[in-house]
Amino acid sequence: MKIAIGNKIKEIFSGVENNFKGGLLLWAVSFLSIITVRLSGEVLILGIPKQNTEEFVAFFVHTLLFFLMTYLVFLVYLRVFTKKEWLKLTSVLLWGFWLIIFPPIIDKIVFGGRKTWSFYVFDGIDGLIEKFFTFFGDNLMMGITLGTRVMIFAVLVLLAFYYFYNKRSWIKTIFFLVGAYIIFFILASLPSFIVLIREFFVGGNIFEVNYGDVAKIFLTPVDYFSYQNQHFNSFMAHKLALFYIPIIIIQLLAVTWMLNKDKFLALIKNIRFPQVFFNFGLFFIGLGLAVFYFPENFDPGLFPALAVLNLLISIFFIWLFSVVVNDIYDIGIDKITNQERPLVKGVLEVWEYIQFGVMFLFIALIGSLIVGVKFFLLICVYALITWIYSSPPFRFKKFFPVASIFSAFASIIFLLMGYVLVSKNQELVNFPWKVFWLLVFAYVAVIPIKDFKDIKGDRKQGIKTLPVLLGENNTRLLMAVLVFLCYFLSVYVINEPGLFWPAVVFGGVSFWKIAGGKKLSGLINWWLLGLVFCYGLFVVYYIFF
Predict the structure, then answer these.
(1) In this structure, are residues 282 and 361 in contact, taking their beta carbons and an 8 Å threshold?
(2) Among 258, 293, 310, where does a domain finish?
(3) Domain total in the chain
(4) What separation in angstroms does the CA of 152 have from each of 141, 237, 456, 504?
(5) Which of 453, 513, 455 is nearest to 483 (CA)?
(6) Are residues 149 and 31 part of one domain?
(7) Is residue 418 domain-shared with residue 446, that is, in the same domain?
(8) Is the pLDDT of residue 522 over 60?
């Protein structure tokens, strides 16, 4: 009898562990299906609330990110304790995640028409300790409701059973179970822990933090720069989602590193950091311009900083998405001139690279969406421009000057994002279009730098870049003149005579670095960025001081 039961249990576990055979995209569809069922069930059981776009976005993004964060933390936890294969643990967790659909159902059955509010534990240190040892306290209708507690208890039992089945040790299982419960408690009390950590770093007394202090931060209107969310139902969801994106990024980096260090390092080396800093610089230029025109909207608080961080994350990952698209369709060129690229070296297969590209796109879209729908739309525009720039049937990168113009307008989107974040009503009010066109002109002037190392490959593939059309020396001279002209024009666009000599000096050095006889290398990008940064300090000084 025992043997029969043991064989049946082994058969069940083996079936669950080996059920998932797909990659990242199949996992994402499966995970989103579970989240969709949970959200749909919650809406049907609790009734369809009257929500505007902001409330719906905050509710959806928060729910998705919270469960994704939970999934990732338990994936790593199981991997560390069980040493089982990642694919098997991925399948086990996916099947177990169906339990998240039951809390609203249980609450509805038990409490009927009485009002329940499932969210988080709000309390200070003393209250958290008490709730930890009383399985979330005595209030079953608010915070961690009865339905959620039943789900957590069921998950803990299943996790303990799964771990004991693999390790056959009661002592290890107890320690494993305690660790799992601690993780659940921290996740359920995240707002309280965030407030405690914040209080510690600002020099406050963490032992004086109470329920009201947590509520004051997370149940008050969302307010950063010119944006205000006055819809109470989405205050907490909106604010916590701003925290969750950076946390999930750290988790994904850790999981990718643990999965395959070679692939992780290949992706890191393929980032093109000069372009990343250039994109960030455009964002901060836009933000600085908006601060100049609307100083009353500038707010250096916690949530404004998180909004900026989330947008920087979106800019970073949408850039990585564009890199993936470019590398996939430029593999013929890269085999000639960029043999260190992941696809050329064979570190990544095309199907793997595509999955990473989809993940990068997802992070960029979600990160921008939680800050605001306008930023989401701008990121979508950037993604579409870079797609038609690199991929068939259009592949505009083949045609000069169309390629340069498309690249310039794509990057200037980041400038608009920075400006919109701070400007009045998040609109282009008072936007200095002269600066916009100067930056477009400057970007068109310097973008051929990236094409010098690809001359052989571009010529063979029929890509008509400026170095291919004019030759390296003529292109360098033309670029040097245009860059110097950009510095010179900036004095008149900004309308600050004091910038004349800094513009001459920095423009002259840039001219020398570009037109000089030495072969251009990747370092020239850092040189130009450094010179622009130093010149930008003069601009800030003359404008703001």
Answers:
(1) no
(2) 258
(3) 3
(4) 16, 21, 60, 66
(5) 513
(6) yes
(7) no
(8) no
pLDDT above 90 for 174: yes
Residues 288 and 379 in one domain: yes
The model carries a pTM of 0.89
Cα separation, 442 vs 5, in Å, equals 73
DSSP string, 35-54: HHHHHHHHHHHH------HH
Same domain as 87, residue 28: yes
Residues 6 or more apart from 515 whose CB is under 8 A from it?
476, 477, 479, 480
**Could you say which of 431, 463, 493 is where a domain stops?**
431
Task: Quickly list DSSP for 494-515.
Answer: HT-GGGHHHHHHHHHHHHHHHH
Contact 480, 515 (CB under 8 A): yes
**Can you give the residue range of the structural domain that contains 312?**
262-431
pLDDT tens for 56-109 read 888 889 999 999 999 999 999 999 999 888 888 988 899 999 999 999 889 888
Residue 135 has pLDDT above 90, yes or no: yes
- Does 233 have pLDDT greater than 80? no
The predicted-structure confidence for 285-335, as pLDDT tens digits, reads as follows 888 888 888 888 888 888 999 999 999 999 999 999 999 999 998 888 778
Same domain, 280 and 144: no
- Say how far apart CA 214 and CA 220 lie, in whole Å: 10
Tell me if 291 sits within 8 A of 421, measured CB to CB: no
Spatial contact of 149 and 99, defined as CB atoms under 8 Å apart: no
